[in-house]
């Protein structure tokens, strides 16, 4: 991420996604001048990368509950374990 987008790193997933949605709307509307469009596109790329990183981190933390033969929870294991 560019130095000008360091603030993105501190955003929650929801805040980053909201900003990203606003950028997409503004770019799709065609109302922004070229220089501004380029700047907000670059910010959008930083926001997208941040959201992807947060999602990957969250996915790594998800666990699957393991059950005993009688259906009682006995522990957890990583979601992707077979």
What are its keywords?
elongated, 2 helices, alpha+beta
SSE blueprint and pairings:
Layout (H helix, E strand, L loop, with lengths): L12 H17 L4 H28 L1 E5 L5 E6 L4
Antiparallel strand pairs: 1-2
Helix pairs in contact: 1-2
Average residue pLDDT: 86
CA radius of gyration is: 19 Å
Count of structural domains: 1
Quaternary:
single chain
What is the overall shape? elongated
- Overall structural class, as computed from helix and strand content, comes to alpha+beta
> In which order are the strands of the major sheet placed?
1-2
Helix content: 40-55%
H-E string? HHEE
Largest sheet: 2 strands, antiparallel
- Uncertain segments are none
| Number of β-strand runs | 2
| Percent of sequence in beta strands | 5-15%
Separation, N- and C-terminal Cα atoms? 36 Å
Number of helices: 2
Q: What features would you describe in this structure?
A:
With 82 residues, the chain is an alpha+beta fold. The protein has one domain. Helix content is 55%, strand content 13%. The chain is built from 2 helices and 2 strands; from the N terminus they run ααββ. It has helices spanning 13-29, 34-61; strands at 63-67, 73-78. A two-stranded antiparallel sheet has the order 1-2. The mean pLDDT is 86.
Question: Brief overview, please?
Answer:
It is built from two helices and two strands; from the N terminus they run ααββ. It is of the alpha+beta class and 82 residues long.
């Amino acid at each position: 991420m560019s130095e000008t987008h360091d603030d993105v790193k501190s955003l929650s997933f929801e805040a980053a996604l909201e900003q990203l949605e606003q950028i997409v709307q503004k770019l799709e509307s065609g109302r922004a001048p070229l220089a501004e469009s380029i700047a907000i596109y670059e910010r959008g790329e930083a926001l997208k990368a941040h959201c992807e990183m947060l999602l990957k981190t969250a996915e790594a933390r998800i666990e699957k509950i393991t059950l005993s033969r009688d259906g009682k929870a006995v522990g957890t294991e990583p979601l992707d374990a077979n």
